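User: Okay, second chain of the day. Same drill as before: sequence in, structure tokens out.
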Amino acid sequence: MKAVVIHAARDLRIEERQVDSLGPGQVEVAIEAGGICGSDLHYYNHGGFGTIRIREPMILGHEVAGTVKALGEGVSRLAVGDRVAVSPSRPCSQCDYCLKGQQNHCLNMRFYGSAMPMPHIQGAFCQRLVAEQWQCHRIAEGVSINEAAMAEPFAVTLHAIARAGALTGKRVLVTGCGPIGALAIIAARAHGAREIVATDVMDAVLEKALSIGADRVINVASHPEQLSAYSANKGYFDVQFEASGNERAVRSGLEVLKPRSVLVQLGLGGDVAIPQNLVVAKEIEMKGTFRFHEEFGLAVDLINTRRVDLKPLLTATFPLQDAVTAFNLAADRTQSMKVQITF
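Assistant: Same drill. Structure tokens below.
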């Protein structure tokens, strides 16, 4: 089979790889669509992020969907021909965190396309993927394979919703309107948010945010005063989903969050300086959110039942042989939201 393999920063190759052997309880999936994620872009543009670096060739990708082609012994939940979204989350189910129901913190996690451990965990940007049957969730008839491949990033935002708590009737601020911020808007709307205001520094992504469910958008580069107005009377918003990883977005969010509100950090950034006096004086809860587990099934269900529409987020698709072109477009925020590769 062919696979998309990263060797070092800006060194992305299409290579021949062997298909894994099919074991009991496993299925072989012909991957048909794979979305390029922010972490894939970090590996491509910089060779990694933070202290995590590419140390050996690694297949990228973890936002995938395809069709079941073969069944291992004992598989009963799926049939050849089923179209499935594949969860990249593969916890060990034996460590202390897994046994406490915190599988996203598994000590032996094998998350597709991760350079954290050595040897690296190979990813899913390949023509054939052998996966556990429990990773695979059927796609409803009429749902495109491209929509299904967005279940993974959508699950990320559903886990963030779970960390925030009930959103029914809440006023929500989303800072950063890339793919994750956009999906957070869709997830918040589906969970009963009363009002959603989104901010970014680019008009193009703000227009997209408005079209998918934000009530108001603010370009904080050109009109920061429009967000500052929400700081009156100790703040306005009940929840902030911070998806930019930018220190200024965190600080401005703390200014406009009301007392006893919640800030959920989705975007990955470096170290930031936080006005701790605001956190203390307003009794703000700051929460991190990391990956997901059970939310993947919910993401597929919401897509299958048309409770959410993720199609507007798909910018373009490219065939496997044009993977480098796809990565370059995905890295250009002025032109793209979600870019996928077809296999």
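The mean pLDDT is 96.

User: Thanks, on to the next one.
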